[in-house]
UniProtKB/TrEMBL annotation, chain A:
It is a multi-pass membrane protein. This is Sugar ABC transporter permease. One of its GO terms (cellular component) is plasma membrane. Belongs to the binding-protein-dependent transport system permease family. Its main location: membrane.
UniProtKB/TrEMBL annotation, chain B:
The chain crosses the membrane at residues 7-30, 74-95, 107-127, 158-180, 209-228, 261-283. It comes from Acrocarpospora phusangensis. InterPro entries: ABC_transporter_permease, MetI-like, MetI-like_sf. This is Sugar ABC transporter permease. The keyword Cytoplasm does not apply. GO terms for cellular component: plasma membrane. The lineage of its organism: Bacteria, Bacillati, Actinomycetota, Actinomycetes, Streptosporangiales. SUPFAM superfamilies: MetI-like.
Length: 274, 292
C-alpha cells in the first residue's frame, strides 16, 4: 500500500518536473522555430508556434549581407587562445601541487584571492592596462583578461596532488626532464580534470561578451556575441534574423552540453565545493 | 629538489597573468579614481589631472548613480530569494529518483545556465515584445490586456529579473543536488519510522544538513546579482529612463560610453566595497550560526 502511494508520488513529481522542463526549454524551441520563419511571419500577430513557410534566408543573410562568417572565425580564434590558458593553469597547478619552494604559501593565497574579485570591478582598470599594452583592438586582448583563472589553477592543484609522487621521482631517476615529466606523465594522468577544464573553457570563451564588447572597437574583430548583441537594433525590422543569430550561438553550446554533460556537471559541482 | 627553478618556471606564466589581470587592476583603480581621466587622457597621459575626491563627491550627488544602486538592490531582492527557493525546490524534486527519466530532466534545467546571455536575452526580448510577443498573445487569449514588459518602469524590473532567474537556477540546482547526495538515506528512513512527514523531514533534517550549500549558494548568488550586467544591457540598455540600469551597467556607460574613466573607477571602488561588505556580513552570519 505504502509502496504504491510512494510510486504514485514519484510519478506525480515526474510529471510536474516534466512540465517545468518544457517551460524552461521553451525559449530554445521558440528561438529555433523563429530562426526559420520568414521575416513577415516572425513579426506577425498573433504569433504561430511553427513557421508556415520555413526558410533558411535568415542564416543566409547572417553570412551574406552581415559579417557573421568573420565573427564565427574570430570566436574560434578566441576559443583557441583560451585553450592555451588551460595549459598554463595546468602547469601552475602542477607547480603548486608537487613542488616545495619559497613563497609557495603566499603565492597560492594570492591565487585564491583573485577568485574573490568580480569582473566588473576590474573592468575599467583592466581596459586601461590593455590600452597601455597596446592590446586593445586585438583578439589577444579579447582573450587575455580571462585566460587564467584562480579557480582553474586551484582545481588543477587539487587534482594533481593525487598524482603519485613515486612515478614522478622514478621518471626523474631515469633522467627525464621536468617538461617531459609534465607532458608525458602528469598531464595524461590528469585527463579527467583536463576534460572538465577544456569543456568549461570552451563554453566560457564562446559565450564571453564583456571583453569582446569592450576591447574590440573595429567590427572586423567582433565575436559572435558582439555581433548577436548588435542585432538588437533590428528588433523592429526582423525578429527572425535575431533568432537566427541566437540559434547560431546557442545550438553549438547545447550540442557540446549534450555530449559532455557529465564533465560539465562535474565541473559545476566542483565549483560548488571550492 | 634537484632543479630549484623548475617550480617557478611552471607557475610563472599563470602567476604573471593573474597578477596583471587580477591584482594590478585593483591597485590601478585607486589612483585613477582620484583623477579626471577621460578619452583625451587615455590618448595623452599628460592631460590627466589630479582631482582628489571630486569623483566620489560627484558620485554621491549623482541621481543616476543612486537610481542604479536602488535598482541593483531591487534586482537582488527579487532575484536572490527566488533563485535560491526555485533551485532548492527543483533539486529536491529531481533528487526524488535516480531513474533515467529524472536524470534526463536534469539536462533541461541545467541548459539555460551554459547558454550565451546575449543570445537568450534576444529570445526573451522577442517573447516579451509588446506588439507581437508570444507572452502578450497568451495573455490576450485569457482576456488580459497586453503589458509593456520592457517599457513599463516597474514591470521592466520584474521582466529583466525573470530572465536572470531563468538563467541562474541551473548552476545552483547542480550544487544542491550534489549536496543532497551526501545526506545518508538512513537519516531520512529513521525519521520516517518515527512518523515524520515529508515537510518535517525537509525542515528538520535536509535544510540543516545543507547549511553549507545554502551559504555557498547565497553568497555567490548575492555577488552575481550585485554585478548584474548582461541581461539589462541586451534587453533594455538600462531603459526606460534608467529604470533597469544596474550599478555595473551604470559604470560601463560612464566608463566606455561617456569615456569618463576616472569617474567610473571611483564607482568601481564603491561597488567593490559594497560587494566585500555584503559578503563579509553573510560569512559572519554563518560563523555565529556555527558557534551556537
Amino acid at each position: 500500500m505504502r509502496i504504491v502511494s510512494s510510486r504514485r508520488l514519484t510519478a506525480a513529481i515526474g510529471a510536474a518536473l516534466g512540465a517545468g522542463a518544457l517551460v524552461t526549454a521553451f525559449p530554445f524551441l521558440w528561438m529555433i522555430s523563429g530562426s526559420v520563419k520568414p521575416r513577415s511571419e516572425s513579426a506577425a500577430y498573433p504569433p504561430r508556434l511553427l513557421p508556415e513557410a520555413p526558410t533558411f534566408e535568415n542564416f543566409a543573410q547572417l553570412f551574406g549581407r552581415l559579417d557573421f562568417g568573420r565573427y564565427l572565425v574570430n570566436t574560434l580564434v578566441v576559443v583557441l587562445i583560451s585553450m592555451a590558458g588551460v595549459v598554463l593553469m595546468a602547469m601552475a597547478g602542477y607547480g603548486f601541487a608537487k613542488f616545495r619552494f619559497r613563497g609557495r604559501g603566499p603565492m597560492f593565497f594570492l591565487v585564491l584571492a583573485t577568485m574573490m574579485v568580480p569582473v566588473q570591478v576590474t573592468m575599467i582598470p583592466t581596459y586601461l592596462l590593455l590600452n597601455g599594452m597596446r592590446l586593445t583592438n586585438t583578439l589577444v586582448g579579447v582573450a587575455i583578461p580571462g585566460l587564467v583563472s584562480g579557480f582553474g589553477v586551484f582545481l588543477f592543484r587539487q587534482f594533481m596532488s593525487a598524482v603519485p609522487t613515486e612515478m614522478i621521482e622514478a621518471a626523474r631517476l631515469d633522467g627525464a626532464g621536468e617538461a617531459r615529466i609534465f607532458w608525458r606523465i602528469v598531464l595524461p594522468l590528469s585527463r579527467p580534470i583536463l576534460a572538465v577544464q577544456i569543456v568549461l573553457t570552451f563554453i566560457g570563451a564562446w559565450n564571453s561578451f564583456l571583453w569582446p564588447l569592450i576591447v574590440a572597437d573595429d567590427d572586423r574583430l567582433y565575436t559572435l556575441s558582439v555581433g548577436v548583441s548588435l542585432l538588437n537594433r533590428q528588433i523592429a525590422t526582423s525578429p527572425s534574423l535575431q533568432m537566427a543569430g541566437a540559434t547560431l550561438m546557442v545550438v553549438p553550446i547545447l550540442i557540446v552540453f549534450i555530449v559532455f554533460q557529465r564533465h560539465i556537471v562535474q565541473g559545476f559541482t566542483l565549483s560548488g565545493l571550492r | 629538489m634537484k632543479q630549484p627553478l623548475a617550480p617557478y618556471a611552471f607557475i610563472a606564466p599563470a602567476m604573471i597573468l593573474l597578477l596583471v589581470f587580477g591584482v594590478l587592476p585593483i591597485l590601478v583603480a585607486l589612483p585613477v579614481s582620484l583623477t579626471d581621466m577621460n578619452l583625451a587622457g587615455l590618448a595623452d597621459w599628460s592631460r590627466i589631472e589630479f582631482a582628489g575626491v571630486a569623483n566620489f563627491r560627484e558620485l554621491v550627488a549623482d541621481d543616476a548613480f543612486w537610481q542604479a544602486l536602488t535598482n541593483t538592490g531591487i534586482f537582488a531582492l527579487l532575484g536572490v530569494p527566488t533563485v535560491i527557493a526555485v533551485s532548492f525546490a527543483a533539486a529536491l524534486l529531481l533528487h526524488r529518483s535516480e531513474n533515467r527519466f529524472f536524470r534526463a530532466l536534469r539536462a533541461f534545467y541545467f541548459a539555460p545556465a551554459i547558454t550565451a546571455i546575449v543570445a537568450v536575452s534576444l529570445v526573451w526580448g522577442y517573447l516579451l515584445n509588446t506588439r507581437f510577443g508570444l507572452v502578450n498573445h497568451l495573455l490576450s487569449t485569457v482576456g488580459l490586456p497586453p503589458a509593456r514588459w520592457l517599457g513599463d518602469p516597474v514591470l521592466v524590473k520584474f521582466s529583466v529579473a525573470l530572465v536572470a532567474v531563468w538563467r541562474g537556477t541551473g548552476l545552483n540546482i547542480i550544487i544542491f543536488l550534489a549536496a543532497l547526495k551526501t545526506i545518508p538515506r538512513e537519516y531520512l528512513e529513521a525519521a520516517e519510522l518515527d512518523g515524520a512527514s515529508g515537510a518535517r523531514k525537509i525542515v528538520s533534517i535536509v535544510i540543516p544538513l545543507l547549511r553549507f550549500a545554502f551559504l555557498f549558494v547565497a553568497v555567490t548568488t548575492v555577488i552575481a546579482w550585485l554585478q548584474f550586467f548582461d541581461e539589462p544591457f541586451v534587453l533594455t540598455k538600462g531603459g526606460p529612463l534608467g529604470e533597469s540600469t544596474s550599478i555595473s551597467l551604470f559604470l560601463y556607460q560612464e566608463g566606455f560610453s561617456a569615456g569618463r574613466f576616472g569617474y567610473a573607477a571611483a564607482g568601481t571602488l564603491v561597488l567593490f566595497l559594497i560587494i566585500a561588505g555584503v559578503t563579509l556580513v553573510q560569512l559572519r552570519g554563518r560563523r555565529f550560526d556555527a558557534d551556537r
